[in-house]
Amino acid sequence: MGKTSETANLTSVRKTIVGIQFLFVAFGATVLVPLLVGLDPATALFTAGIGTFIFHLVTKGKVPIFLGSSFAFIAPIISASKQWGMPGTLAGMAGVALVYFTMSALIKWQGRRLLDRLFPPVVIGPVIICIGLSLAPTAVDMAKDNWLLAFISLMTAILVLVLGRGLLKLVPVVCGIVVGYVVSACMGLVDFTAVGSAPWFALPSSITHFQLPEFSWEPFLFMIPVAIAPVIEHIGDVFVVGAVADKDFVKDPGLHRTMLGDGLACLVASLFGGPPVTTYSEVTGAMQITRITSPAVIRIAAGTAIVISVLGKLSAILQSIPSAVLGGIMLLLFGSIASVGIQNLVNHKVNLDQTRNIIIVSVVLTLGIGGAILPMGTFSLSGIGLSALAGVILNLVIPQTKPEA
To answer: What is the pLDDT at residue 317?
Structure first.
């Protein structure tokens, strides 16, 4: 198959180049979250790399997933830090791991029956579409800073993807970012001040000023409900990656292992002072367009993240990339994720002539893409988590009109 041959023909040099490209795709979001909540971006890169390695260790190195900073916790971290300070908030983020561990045990106990019952294709398909399209506003917001730069980056990536040969065809994202960066520098839109003042080598603050989180029950209990959304999104992402790689990762190594790996990565991130991590759809989108699904390439991306976290100059250069350049690339990647959801519905022959299926798909898409928010006491359920939960409930309560094939 096409996907397999692309990966099989990779040499060590090509794997390294593609792995670095995948990190470029995840870099912007990974460092943006800590910048918004008051944490160290270098620490976030470090914990993303370590967390990804932990995930691959737990999943036997079989699942090509990169773990980066989770956007679901931006508002909760800001709110919790005002009430209990950052040390207390970091302790609260350890509670996120507990939710993953509980789900892992439940899935291990019930097995595939539970997943088939809760997450059939009629639920997973539209959830995957939502994962891609719900990120679309982020791409547009980044691109609109300078539509010319975004268009140049996007068209470069598309031309390389369509017309490129050999090694060049494997790195459309890198080509788009490099061309966009060079053009923006020529236009005087890149600020090199931070690059000049950055040290060549600097350990993340989490290592130089390591301190254990200050545990208290209040932030711990505050964060636990928030984890519902990324846990549900995790399930959708595993299905997405499986569809892209043409493998059943729910069966082997098992969703209980991916849940456990994600939970352990979140726990380690909180101990080192980084934000909770989650499966990154951006990297999945890059795998979709390059047809490179090797877990070894993802581990190279993780290793590169750790290296960059201690190289001050390189980290500063990457942070100086204009958002419009990255936004142009995201316009392509996020749409490719949504296309995987459409493929999921088609490949599983979901009958959209059935009123039942139309209702489920419609509600999931409307809630997920529309950005619906359901306040629940001290937290709220929104976005992918809310739409997925609605899909699961509708699938359970609406009776089948006829036996499924």
So the answer is: 78
